[in-house]
Amino acid sequence: MGQIQQTENSKYVDVQIIQDMYQKFVLECPSGLLFLHEFKRFFGVAATGEASDYAESMYRAFDRNRDNTIDFLEFVAALNLVFRGELEPKLRWSFKVYDRDCNGYVDRDELKAIINSIYKIKKGTKKDEDDFKLTVDEAVDRLLRAVDTDNDGHINMEEFIRGAQLDPWVLNMLQLDMNPAGWVLEQRRKSAQF
């Protein structure tokens, strides 16, 4: 059994798991850096296609220092947040995925691009069928009406978080898929079929 250490937020981290993750990371990325094409390959995503835009947005959110690479610390921090984090930090991370141009706002086009990617990825799954009764444009309009409280045509991080916390439908649409392991398995299953 690995060593266990307590972290600031009273959660426990198994040191052996971190060491194993590091060995796998270095095996996949000998340079110690994960580039976009490797990220897509790692998650079984084609260079283009329905999951590509979504994967690129996730990649940008993992890349905290915006150097177009993901180092091991960024990788572990993002996975820790996604798997174990509180709702508000998860929503802050989701906001970064939506904010494709990193200007601090999510506009209609950015919102539409991510919602469209999510629709394409989840199309045909029975699990989230109710979420897709609206078209992409209808979902974007509904989100903007619910979240853009100052009606300026874009959503800032505060509006994004507040809107998600106040409306369960909005939360479901904005928080993305907080089960990346499930998403990865689904992508690998789909790529194995071809």
From TrEMBL:
The residue stretches assigned to a coiled coil in this entry are none
Gene Ontology terms: biological process: visual perception
> Which Gene3D superfamilies does its entry note?
EF-hand
Q: Which SMART domains match?
A: EFh (SM00054)
Q: Which CDD domains match?
A: EFh
Q: Give a yes or no for keyword ATP-binding in this entry.
A: no
**What keywords appear on the UniProt entry?**
Calcium, Lipoprotein, Metal-binding, Myristate, Repeat, Sensory transduction, Vision
Does the keyword section mention Transport? no
Q: Which residues form the EF-hand domain?
A: 50-85, 86-121, 135-170
Which molecular function terms from Gene Ontology are attached?
Answer: calcium ion binding; calcium sensitive guanylate cyclase activator activity
Q: Its GO CC terms?
A: cone photoreceptor outer segment; photoreceptor inner segment
What this protein is called in its record is Guanylyl cyclase-activating protein 2
Instruction: Tell me the InterPro entries matching this sequence.
Output: EF-hand-dom_pair (IPR011992), EF_Hand_1_Ca_BS (IPR018247), EF_hand_dom (IPR002048), Recoverin (IPR028846)
